[in-house]
Write a structure and sequence with these properties.
single chain, mainly alpha, two-stranded antiparallel ribbon, 6 helices, 2 strands
Length: about 190
């Protein structure tokens, strides 16, 4: 998600029109003046070299993370296989599109495909996140049946009557409770 946000700053500042080499920026891995300590926060969103470097760095980390995800999903490939492959494929394609957009000085068709690719990649990540999550274990409500025939006409081993209904579970009452008058139900 951060990579997508950083890409938005690259597009908004037209930062793709500068530093059209890869992986170096003006012959350096980290552009000159990055980070500038006195204006670091502003540079994250307003400096063309910083915005482009951040997007490159985040994209590389995203590709590494997707590769790690695909490798770690391998043992559970029956459940996660195609989703992990989708994330890795979408990330690799997005990375190649980003570099191509940069090297060709932002042709509109490739740049648009790169932006659509971000949506596809986000969809892929949401699909695998949904598959990875473990739903909360729900304990099914115990539905008891009378124990008639097993312990003697619906009595438990301790002489209690066992009454069960499919909707309301089961209740156990003693002889003393049975002899008390029942209250009318509203």
């Amino acid at each position: 998600m951060l990579t997508i946000v950083a890409g938005g700053f690259v597009a908004g500042l037209h930062a793709g029109l500068a530093y059209n080499t890869f992986p170096l920026m003006d012959g350096r891995l980290v552009p000159e003046g990055y980070p500038d300590a006195h204006s670091f926060a502003r540079d994250l969103v307003a400096s063309v070299p910083a915005v482009q470097f951040n997007h490159r760095l985040l994209a590389s980390l995203t590709l590494l993370s997707a590769t790690g995800l695909a490798i770690s999903a391998w043992p559970d490939r029956d459940r996660l296989g195609w989703r992990a492959a989708f994330v890795l494929g979408a990330t690799a394609l997005q990375y190649v599109l980003g570099v191509t957009t940069l090297l060709l000085v932002v042709p509109v068709g490739i740049a648009l495909t790169h932006q659509i690719g971000a949506t596809v990649l986000l969809t892929a990540v949401l699909l695998i996140a949904h598959a990875i999550r473990r739903p909360a274990r729900r304990v099914p409500r115990a539905v008891s049946r009378p124990l008639r025939g097993q312990l003697g006409h619906g009595r438990t081993a301790h002489g209690q009557i066992h009454r069960g209904t499919p909707l309301y579970g089961s209740t156990i009452s003693t002889d003393a409770q049975r002899s008390a008058p029942e209250e009318p139900k509203p």
